[in-house]
Amino acid sequence: xxxxxxxxxxxxxxxxxxxxxxxxxxxxxxxxxxxxxxxxxxxxxxxxxxxxxxxxxxxxxxxxxxxxxxxxxxxxxxxxxxxxxxxxxxxxxxxxxxxxxxxxxxxxxxxxxxxxxxxxxxxxxxxxxxxxxxxxxxxxxxxxxxxxxxxxxxxxxxxxxxxxxxxxxxxxxxxxxxxxxxxxxxxxxxxxxxxxxxxxxxxxxxxxxxxxxxxxxxxxxxxxxxxxxxxxxxxxxxxxxxxxxxxxxxxxxxxxxxxxxxxxxxxxxxxxxxxxxxxxxxxxxxxxxxxxxxxxxxxxxxxxxxxxxxxxxxxxxxxxxxxxxxxxxxxxxxxxxxxxxxxxxxxxxxxxxxxxxxxxxxxxxxxxxxxxxxxxxxxxxxxxxxxxxxxxxxxxxxxxxx
Length: 402
Fold this sequence. Notes:
This protein is an alpha/beta fold. Helices cover 38% and strands 15% of the residues. The protein starts with a strand and ends with a helix.
């Protein structure tokens, strides 16, 4: 029996956590044993779960990150404990996802990965592994990651540092440690991120694209209700809402009385500050509930300023809802001309024009648009098809090692 060991900040919750869970489930169905080590927040899993660290360690790591820009350089003891566990399990493949998030020490981890000779697969969900500080640089157009970060113009973004700028040191550290494993394959979730990675210090590793997939049994058109108020229903979904997720755009859109707006993932503290025209819904781990929100919307609006390959765009289409998104990162790759509209980032007038274009469609045109969305999702987004590519990658790597 082959053994898979995945590492991610979450387990079976949030988009990356669900991806790791679904990869694990598929591996189990193919006769593998599956483990997932996680930093915080987990839902029940079919894989063996291993908690990394504790709240106290996460808190101390957060302090070092916020003050000294030491993200990924704390949590030494818990990382050593994790490595001891990995040695005991002796997996055939170690699959990294998000190793940032205040729970791991990457120099210690990558020293072990290099010395162990274990095959490593690393899925990049964002740009943090390529930079001296930030997880996303697209919205500010920074290019320093290509030659060497310094004097970071994005220091207040995640993982924020409010006092020191160690981006130059961090860049050199990452370039050194991430280059140590001789048997590491990089997976990017979009062609856009692949092209970025090929210009980075990770370019010498093999790089392949495996798009994210979704559960089409869960995300499908259902429980659609008739629109009794005559308003055009806009939906937004995010794990955390801020300016970079397009919150300001939704506030501006709420002034249009033709629109009914629902935002999912809004905490209570934030909902009190938003216009009452916006219906705020908290975080939900209920996939059926989320699918209902997608299904009942007329259009899914994703005015994101930073994104590698937004899973929410896939989920909306699978539920028969067209997508309007900014031309950001890998977001344009998630739709085509028959399932949505791509808008210049930050152009609110163009965003409204795109919404109006769909709103003014005839009933038959919107039904055809919805059907195209479902068809495209079934053809391209089935997680079984997407994540089978991971199993094929694992098996090809293990075969070479054997």
